[in-house]
């Protein structure tokens, strides 16, 4: 791959996808990042955890998150470019993910506010009552500095995987809407103007069937804070998104969809973010590889640039190939999501195909981002661990990606569930068959079917190796599909 293409996310996307419909928007957005955004992003990362000003000078509770003014200026660039609004009014969800790719190349943490804002707008649009949509959706789709932010808050102190057990936030019906009492322990984009929140209906079963999804505004209808922020988290990376602990005290809330179908809405919301996590992971891989090219063509050892030495050159080419395979897998998840995201339960077989590919993509690309950024540090030698040069930052940012929106364990178990209950593996193998290498296809299919035939405990114990194999086979095959499609007349 041409090094100039590798250094530009917009050029890479155009080289892989052809001239995308919003190519000029991507180019302008990238130019803003080069000219202004990179410096702002670096300053925010160095500053560390933002401040939380809980009270004003008169002692009134305000919970204001304090970043430099330049941060808010930077944050609004993506919203104005269309990282949320382009999905609506006849637009394409895929365009939002293209803008997300550019964002994550320069600042993976800043892609999180855009992701959760999109993941707020989508269920609000699909499931909100007309008066709720009219009140909360238009501000999320604004194209100027007055745009609202969204957030998706599911996780409590007990953990995020076992929602049926550990969601203790309680929802009670009231004269107008609902009231929520409880707390969320990992609340990314704390301070958002509106959030979608998982809560358990009063007297509902202590399982996922007792959960519903609610819209919770930052301010009450009569004024004053509708939720409070207990504190902000000090994280290893992603410092460009404030993550905190939020508390609900008779907080005004509005139900989305049917109360008994809340778990489906929650999983739809998570899957939007899992696809974004995959796109962000691949973009970060590219950023790490671009940094290696920039350094290794200038560093001279034993009489020539270190990138010309056969060992490093071979490693670099291997990572380039893995990056392209990761992109093919993540982009397939985007394309499938773009075709099914307006579906509601009960879902089509294509939706279940999307689900499995989304789990495979989130599982594989996040780990590949960690390994790529680790290798990039190694390629820089001692310079790679020095904070002043910024290479170590990419590993810090990458380490969060396998955990966000469900750990690798969660992706494996959810993928198994999709295969067992919805036969998603049959859908996947049929989908890949025209493009797959025959022997790899037969061997991978036999391995998956053998796993699914095992008793439950044995099946789960052996699942990771098989899931990893299925993910790498899928990524490789989708690259074959991608190349066949783009080389055809």
Structure in words:
The chain is of the alpha+beta class and 489 residues long. The protein folds into 3 domains: 3-140, Butyryl-Coa Dehydrogenase, subunit A, domain 1 (Orthogonal Bundle), CATH 1.10.540; 150-260, Beta Barrel (Butyryl-CoA Dehydrogenase, subunit A, domain 2); 264-487, Butyryl-CoA Dehydrogenase, subunit A, domain 3, CATH 1.20.140. Helices cover 57% and strands 14% of the residues. It contains 17 helices and 11 strands. It has helices at 3-7, 9-17, 23-47, 69-81, 93-106, 108-127, 130-140, 163-166, 262-296, 310-340, 349-379, 391-400, 408-422, 424-432, 438-452, 456-461, 463-487; strands spanning 51-55, 61-66, 150-153, 170-173, 178-188, 194-201, 211-217, 228-232, 243-256, 300-301, 304-305. The strands form 3 sheets. It has a 5-stranded mixed barrel. Strand 1 and strand 2 form a beta hairpin. Helix 3 (23-47) packs antiparallel against helix 4 (69-81) and helix 11 runs antiparallel to helix 12.
């Amino acid at each position: 791959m041409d090094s100039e293409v590798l250094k530009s996310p917009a050029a890479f996307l155009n080289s892989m996808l052809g001239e995308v419909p919003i190519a000029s928007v991507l180019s302008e957005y990238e130019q803003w990042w080069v000219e202004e955004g990179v410096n702002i992003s670096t300053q925010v990362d160095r500053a560390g955890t933002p401040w939380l000003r809980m009270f004003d000078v008169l002692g009134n509770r305000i919970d204001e998150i304090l970043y430099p003014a330049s941060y808010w200026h930077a944050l609004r660039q993506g919203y104005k470019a269309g990282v949320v609004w382009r999905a609506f009014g006849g637009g394409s969800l895929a365009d939002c993910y293209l803008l997300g790719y550019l964002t994550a190349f320069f600042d993976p943490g800043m892609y999180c506010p855009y992701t959760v804002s999109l993941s707020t707008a989508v269920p609000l649009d699909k499931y909100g009552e007309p008066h709720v949509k009219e009140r909360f959706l238009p501000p999320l789709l604004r194209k100027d500095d007055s745009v609202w932010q969204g957030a998706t808050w599911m996780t409590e102190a007990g953990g995020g995987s076992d929602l049926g057990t550990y969601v203790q936030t309680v929802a009670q019906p009231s004269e107008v809407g609902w009231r929520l009492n409880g707390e969320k322990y990992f609340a990314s984009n704390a301070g958002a103007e509106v959030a979608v929140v998982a809560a358990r209906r009063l007297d509902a079963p202590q399982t996922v069937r007792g959960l519903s999804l609610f819209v919770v505004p930052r301010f009450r209808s009569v004024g004053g804070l509708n939720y409070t922020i207990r504190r902000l988290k000090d994280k290893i990376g992603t410092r460009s998104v404030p993550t905190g602990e939020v508390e609900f005290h008779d907080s005004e809330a509005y139900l989305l969809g049917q109360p008994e179908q809340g778990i489906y809405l929650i999983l739809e919301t998570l899957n939007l973010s899992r696809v974004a996590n995959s796109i962000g992971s691949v973009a970060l891989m590219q950023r790490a590889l671009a940094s290696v090219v920039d350094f290794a063509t200038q560093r001279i050892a034993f009489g020539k640039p270190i990138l010309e030495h056969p060992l490093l050159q071979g490693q670099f080419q291997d990572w380039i190939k893995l990056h392209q395979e990761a992109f093919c897998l993540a982009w397939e998840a985007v394309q499938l999501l773009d075709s099914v995201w307006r579906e509601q339960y009960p879902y089509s077989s294509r939706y279940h195909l999307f689900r499995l590919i989304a789990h495979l993509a989130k599982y594989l690309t996040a780990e590949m981002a960690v390994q790529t950024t680790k290798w990039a540090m190694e390629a820089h030698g001692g310079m790679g661990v020095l904070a002043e040069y910024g290479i170590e930052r990419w590993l810090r940012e990458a380490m969060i990606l396998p955990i966000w929106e469900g750990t690798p364990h969660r992706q494996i178990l959810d993928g198994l569930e999709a295969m067992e209950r919805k036969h998603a593996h049959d859908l996947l193998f049929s989908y890949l068959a025209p493009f797959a290498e025959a022997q790899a296809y037969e061997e991978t299919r036999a391995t998956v079917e053998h796993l699914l035939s095992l008793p439950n405990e044995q099946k789960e114990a052996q699942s990771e190796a098989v899931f990893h194999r299925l993910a790498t086979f899928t990524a490789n095959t989708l690259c074959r599909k991608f190349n066949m499609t783009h080389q055809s007349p």
